[in-house]
Every structure is written in structure tokens, then in C-alpha cells.
Amino acid sequence: MYIDLERHGRVAVVRLNRPKARNALSSKLRQEMLAAMRPLDCDPAIGCFVIAGAERYFSAGADIAEMHAKTALQMYHDDFFAGWDEFAALRTPKIAAVSGYAYGGGCELAMMCDIVYCAQSARFGQPEIELGVMPGMGGTQRLTKLVGKSLAMDMILTGRAIDATEALHAGLVARVIADDRLMRETLDAAHRVASFGKTAALAAREAVDRSLELGLREGILFERRAFQALFGTADQKRGMQAFLDKRPAVFNED
Ligand code: CO8
């Protein structure tokens, strides 16, 4: 197995575990990840995923050994990397906990998550140009939307990796955390996300994601419709009643 799966209450931690290839993202690793995550994604008892790697490396990217001999026709017919769209589309919130390097597909995998936290040791890069190719798992699109065109071009055209501080300032990560506290703090945040109503969390992340794709008017309409629909959930009644009663709300009890 190339992944380890642990459950901590309402949080599922998926840890990439392919040390010999520095967590290179082979098709087998992707299939194992999705097979583990797919059933949990629609399980109301799971409210958040954490995606982690090793201490020194999150992932060295796509598996170069797996793809190096492929022809363009094979890549096209296999629709190589399309399988990762399913990972990005999982609806349960996903937090990436990046320690060490996240290069190529590793950086792209982190960007497919809803929140990225990283350790001070983290480095992010899109070095595909050094291999004679370019990012192929969403890097040209997600990185540009997250950090802007100029830095995205700098990283993609020169292959330069950025450190945790630059990633924070650029908006690629939400928090930089001391290496020895990364998992603890990430788990704390994941437990907090998972403690709220899952329906509200699914709707909120879906609406935020729409902001990357829709114009303002359509995005706001999408948000308003999702907000209105949440009034059909028990968690909305619980959350608002608890506020009025001046007591903490308890969610996810349907
Ligand atoms: N794929 C396969 N194997 C890898 C990869 C990888 N991406 N990265 C490392 N490995 C393997 C090495 O070959 C080595 O194997 P072995 O022990 O059998 O020789 C083992 O992992 C250890 O590697 P290192 O000794 O180099 O480990 P370090 O921790 O010292 O260094 C580095 C790690 C700096 C990450 C270095 O290994 C490296 O530069 N790796 C390649 C990084 C890279 O270029 N990533 C981008 C890959 S391409 C991609 O992600 C998207 C491509 C888009 C294509 C679009 C198609 C549609």
C-alpha cells in the first residue's frame, strides 16, 4: 500500500507512504487514495480529510518512471492525470499538511485541497520545465489563480521553488506552522471543521470554489441559493437556536 489511512473521530488522515520514490504520485497510489477516500466522502460521520506526506517530503510529483516512455497518443487515450479530477472533486473539506518539498504534482495535489497548511521546512515548486514538459495536474490554472500570473510564470518557467514564507505571502498557503507542530495544529483545525454541520461545510466549500470559475453576479447568486437551501437542514435550526439560547450548538446529529 502506498497510503496509510487513520481515523481520528470525524477526521480521516490520508498519509502518502511511498518513501522509495519520495511519494511520487503513480496511478496505483492515486487509485489507492481514491478507493480509501470515496466511501468516506459520502459518509456523514466524516467531516474533514487531512492529506499528509513524510516529514522531509510531501511529494516529489508525478511518477516520472511511470510516464517517461509513454507516447503522446498513449497519454491522450489514457487521458493521463484525469483521474486526479476525482480527488479535487471530493466534496468533504480537505486540508493538506505539507512538510518538506511539494514539487510538480505534489504542489498540484496540495492545491487541489481546500486549505493548505505547511511546515517551516516546506518548499513548493513546479519544476516540470526541467523535464521538458509543463505542469499537467492543474498547476498552470490553480497556481495562477492562487498566487497571480507573475509569480506563477516565474515558478513554472524557471522551475524555481518557493519557501514557506514566500508561499504564505503569495496566498498559496493559509498558515506556516513549526515543523514539530504541523500535524497537531492541522488536526485541531480539521476537528474544528468536522465539528460543524457537514451539509453547511459542503455547501460553503462548493460556493468558495465557484468563485474561481464564475463571474461575481453568478457567484453571488450561487452563494445565496446555497445559503437559502441550508434552511432545510436540522443543523441550521440547531445552530441558530443554540445561539439564541446562549449555549454551544451540537451539529451532525441527524
Ligand atoms: N517520480 C519517480 N521517482 C522519483 C521522483 C518522481 N517524481 N522523485 C524522486 N524519485 C525517486 C528517485 O528516482 C530516487 O529513486 P532511486 O532511489 O531508485 O534512484 C528516489 O526517489 C530518491 O530520490 P532522490 O535521491 O533524488 O531524493 P531527494 O529527497 O534527495 O531529492 C527531489 C528529491 C529533489 C524531489 C528529486 O528527486 C527530484 O528532483 N525529483 C523530481 C521532481 C520533479 O521533477 N517533479 C515533477 C515531476 S513531473 C510532474 O509532477 C507533472 C508532470 C506533468 C506532465 C503532464 C502530462 C500530461
Automatic annotation (TrEMBL):
CDD domains: crotonase-like
Biological processes, Gene Ontology terms: fatty acid beta-oxidation
Statement: the UniProt record of this protein carries the keyword Lyase: yes
Cited Pfam families: ECH_1 (PF00378)
MF term (GO), any: hydro-lyase activity
Keywords: Lyase
Family the UniProt entry places it in: Belongs to the enoyl-CoA hydratase/isomerase family.
Database matches in PANTHER family: ENOYL-COA HYDRATASE, MITOCHONDRIAL, ENOYL-COA HYDRATASE-RELATED
Protein name per UniProt: Enoyl-CoA hydratase
UniProt lineage: Bacteria, Pseudomonadati, Pseudomonadota, Betaproteobacteria, Burkholderiales
